[in-house]
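[INFO] parsing input record for glucomannan 4-beta-mannosyltransferase
[DEBUG] input buffer:
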Amino acid sequence: MEQLVRSGLMPDSFMGPGDDIKAQVYLIWDMIKAPLVVPLLKVAVVLCLMVSLMLFCERVYMSIVIVLVKVFGRKPDKRYKFEPFRDDVESANSDYPHILIQIPMFNEREVYKMSIGAACKLSWPSDRIVIQVLDDSTDHTVKQMVEMECQKWANKGINIRYQVREDRKGYKSGALKDGLTHQYVKDCEYVAIFDADFQPDPDFLLRSIPYLAHNPEIALVQARWVFVNADECLLTRMQEMSLDYHFTVEQEVGSSTHAFFGFNGTAGVWRIAAINDAGGWKDRTTVEDMDLAVRAGLRGWKFLYLGDLQVKSELPSTFQAFRFQQHRWSCGPANLFRKMFMEIIRNKTVTWYKKVYVIYSFFLIRKIIAHIITFSFYCLILPASCWIPEVEIPKWGAVYIPVIITMLNAAGTPRSMHLLMFWILFENVMALHRTKASLIGLLETGRANEWVVTEKLGDASATKKSPQKTPKRPRFRLGSRLHMLELAVSAYLFGSACYDYTYGNTRYFIYLYIQSMAFLIMGCGYVGTIVPSS
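[DEBUG] output buffer:
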């Protein structure tokens, strides 16, 4: 210490009586604050404000497009040819194309009957449809149950095939790819894909296939998801708000302006020729659906989103399942962007305008920047400004822009407007998890290729909550319930709120106290359905 003082690196005052540690810490802070911390924080604020404006402009642009679509009535049947198929006894329904239905499964004990039953009830000539159950289950009991269900429908005259593989190579994409190689698929022109918890209505094919049959440039018809368990708990209501915006705005805008959007992995119908033209299914990322869509889009194929064609599905109602899903949905796109950026740049098939849209709007703004800016600005930089009064955040950046963005997002689910505050807090907490996943995907480290199938409870939660039998109290597992990163951010926000309340004048402490509680609750795992162990 004395050598540092003699060398001039530290002032004489640093050597106080008894080398008071507290005084030394304050002195070091004063030494680095003005020349280092304040300028860096000011730069961070400027960057965050610029990115917030980018995100704001993107949201306003999409809102304007949606309004114009509604005002001018740009419905799918006005933009593309649509002629329903008609039964013709004389031609033996030869006008109906051959359809393949794929249902990928993995230990779907609770929901396999629903998806298989719904697929078998689809209205289509029985000699022109094949239902393919792709079972990658590792639970032999579940395998037997699924096979028996398929046999039950086969005995009723349904053309259903039960397929298993020797290994799970490629996970879902590997199963879908393998399913297309069977001999009985060669006559099929289109393939409809439904995850195990999806239940299409009987007229699903009658309302979607005509667009593909009469418009050879269309590769994909995507339906909208609706959720049978949206009212199960607050976690599912929050998910409904986010996904409703995705479907009613993001997918509709992509379909209406560029005939391009990300395939949602299920509740969609592909032209098999387009899949082959794009290079088929690939397992290089955890978002094989988006990978295929981007490659097909770069080949010039068009996509169509049908907002009025709805398919019932289930939202993950346990926090652990939701976290795994969000990791895959955030890490995968970032990793895909890393791998396809130069491919998009070098593409000669599509216009430069579409390439800018794919890179800027589809990937950067929606899949990467939105997560990072939400967490960085509102959970790191804004509370940091409470400790450093020299850095001021303009009210338009801290209040007005986020409020407008939030209102635009919430417009997709009007029935949940009263839950808007909870949704803001929830999204800010999840932004931490999504930011971490996005960085893992961009850097391709750690869990970049981790694939965890989203757990579906079906009626299991209701069964386990039955009052007929009092279940055992679930054991508290420290590793599975506590999320230390969320708890650390909670402590940081709480400390910032206390400091702002005591010494500051920004009134950020009101938001910071509430947000810190949200991080604490979710960090302790007290959100969503908690299913007792039997």
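[INFO] The two ends are 61 Å apart (CA to CA).
[INFO] shutting down worker
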